[in-house]
Specification:
73% helix; rod-shaped; mainly alpha; single chain; 238 residues; 0% strand
Length: 238
Amino acid sequence: MSETGHAKNVANFQDLISFCEGYGSTYNPSKENLKIVSMLNQYQRSLDRLYQVKTDKTGFDIATNNRRNEFDDLKRLSTKVLSAFMVSGADKLAIDDVNSIQKKIQGRSSKKIKEEATGEDIKRISTAQQSFDRFIDHFANLLQVLEQNPVYNPNEMELKLTSLRMKFESMKRVNKDLTDAYTQYSNAMIRRNHALYDASTGLVQTAKEVKLYIRSIFGATSPQFRQVNCIEFRMMKE
């Protein structure tokens, strides 16, 4: 669901409060959460939850882009490493090992990785995470083979073991950063959904009860009830 729908529920709740304030002393519910002060507090809490989701979504998007950029050249780099290893003087078995790892790294198209890493479909993040974890594992295996073969000593800085180790550490770091950012974003959505859609205390439930109270004091055909009854609130979870 679009974030616009959540924001619309909160904005409509503010409209509902305004109508209730306009009824003056006639609006005098006995239930605490229907009182104006309680409604204003609930409105502010819900607004804060919305803003937090937006903030954490931005952090998640940044972490997603950072990881995508870090992994973008992995296939190209591993191909260059294989080529350098093949002319390093390593024996055939070692070359076969590197070639096998290289094939695993090349196993998925970068387009597919980017699609899963965009963050547009949160439900697929777990699958994407597993994919990047495997890339890190493959790269770790590649490093292990290279380290066990001292003949691998290229002059090119990008292909040297020191550079590859730095690359490996950077890959692990951005991958963890994204995991942490997603956790924060996901928790923010849970808190927002609780504030707006909890069956007992959520904003939408409060709005429903407020409408019923207004109907009870003014009547179902009253202009006051028509005012508030047309204010739409939708149950949303995504």
